[in-house]
Structures are given as C-alpha cells and as structure tokens.
Amino acid sequence: MDLVVVGVVVAIIVVLLLAFLAYSGLFTSVNIGTGRPPIGEVIVAYKFSTGPYERSEKLFREFMKIDDKRTTLGIYYDNPDEVSAERLRYVVGQIVAENEDPVDRAVRRTYEESGCRFITLPPTRAAINAWFPHRNKLSIFFGMRSFYSKLMRYVEEKKLPLEVCLEIYDGETIQYMVPLDEQDAFFVPEAKKFSN
After folding, report:
1. What is the pLDDT of residues 69-112, one digit of tens each?
2. Structural domain contains residue 64
3. Is the CB of residue 74 less than 8 Å from the CB of residue 167?
4. Phi/psi at 93 (nearest 5 deg)?
5. Domain total for the chain?
6. From CA 36, how far away is CA 72, in angstroms rounded?
7. In a domain, 109, yes or no
8. I need a surface site. Which of 10, 91, 170, 186 has the fewest CB within 10 A?
9. Integer Cα distance of 108 and 162 in angstroms
C-alpha cells in the first residue's frame, strides 16, 4: 500500500514539473521571419557594459527597480562564438518615449540620477523577428536557447547581416529583433569606442 502512495505522489510531482516546464516554454517553438519590426522610433534610457552576457541580468534587475512597468530591452553587439566573454558588448535599457514624443522631464531626471544615458533608436524598414512567451525566468532561458540557434541558421541561409540583436521584454512576451537596415544607429557611443 505504501508503495502505491509513493508511486502516485511521484507521478503527481512529475506531471506538475512537466506542466510547469511546458508553461515556461520548454516545448514552445520559436518561428523566425523577416518583416516589420516590433518597435518604431524609440528613446531608450540605457547602461552599457561588457563581459559575459549572463551578467546583463544584473542591469535588467536595476531597470526593473526604476520602473517595472516599462518595456525593457537588451541590445547585444557580439557573437559569443567569435568574441571572448570578457569583450562582449551589450546595453540594457528601458523605452522612455516613442514616435518622436519627448521624454518627460521627471522621467529623464529619474534615469539620469540612476546613471543612465539616452539614445534614439531609429525606425527600421525590416527586421528578423521572433517572439516567445515571457512567463518566468525559465522562459528567458528557453527562448534564448531556441531563438539564437535558429537565428544563426536563418542568417546563414538567407545571407543576411547580423551586427546587433535586440531582446525586448514587455511583461508578456520576449520579442527578438535583428534590424536589417540602420544597424549602425543601434550602436551606443560606448560600444563604438570599445570595438572588437
């Protein structure tokens, strides 16, 4: 009798674990395509850093403390298969204005006091796009694992440029975007100075 109870408990735990992993996106496939980008012209309050991309999580947490309702993004400049981990360049920031709207003075001051700089990202005509559900931290891992392997094959197959990649977090989805034009305009001044 005790063996049956243990078996049932183990089965329930396995089912719950699989359900949680499925909810987090383990079995969700990323579809990559070329089309209109998910964002237009935006002003981003940002911080630049170098080192392993895993360290960007610290900056993401900093920005969520400033304003956890704003769309947060990461801009990644280097292929970790080609550049040493300590020389990888990236930006983490939040969208503070869109479509030529000015940044509210109080908002600007808040971000400046937190050590942020600002950049206007231009609208692009086309981008490589994909999206993934953002339900928890595991979603980030599963999304990256699925997206980046497919992205490399897609870029190679279509012979498309790949200089910069954005991850855009709106609270519900993770949108991946590789602009196909205006790529230089996505490089913050610090990234240009610290070139590889």
Report:
1. 999 999 999 999 899 999 999 999 999 999 888 899 999 999 99
2. yes
3. yes
4. -165, -175
5. 1
6. 19
7. yes
8. 10
9. 31
